[in-house]
Design a protein that fits this description.
3 domains; mainly alpha; single chain; about 0% strand; 8 helices; elongated
């Protein structure tokens, strides 16, 4: 305790620490939970109407990211809801004109990274297109 007092000049803090030490020695430590932030709230449950709206938005060709933002949920939640509802997912495909552009830029000697940057797809997508259309 003497070390504690010499370490901390503030009377109030020293008293608080002495109280905590005494409680720890007796084995009865009570914690003040008022300063502890509340736990993260449980995720909200989506109503049947919200699920129907997600499905309708997807059927209207709205991108999954936009649907997630609109309904305040994660993209994974949108995919999960679509799967549970038995909705057939749209295939992700690079448009034919984008494939032609990738092949044209590759023929000019540009790197996959540069092609991906200029076309607006990932480097792995460029690699897959070149692999598929290798001659």
């Amino acid at each position: 305790m003497r070390l504690l007092r010499s370490y901390c000049n503030r009377e109030r803090q020293t008293a608080h620490l002495a109280k905590l030490r005494a409680q720890a020695v007796t084995g009865r430590v009570s914690r003040d939970r008022s300063s502890i932030p509340a736990c993260t709230p449980a995720p909200k449950r989506l109503s049947a109407e919200a699920n129907a709206a997600i499905i309708a938005d997807y059927a209207a060709k709205m991108p999954v990211r936009a649907i997630a933002r609109k309904h305040g949920v994660n993209e994974g939640t949108v995919h999960h809801r679509l799967k549970r509802a038995g909705v057939t997912k749209r295939p992700y495909a690079i448009q034919p004109n984008t494939i032609e552009e990738i092949l044209r830029l590759h023929a000019k000697g540009r790197t996959n990274v540069a092609i991906a940057h200029s076309v607006g797809v990932s480097e792995s997508s460029v690699h897959n297109v070149l692999k598929k259309h290798a001659s």
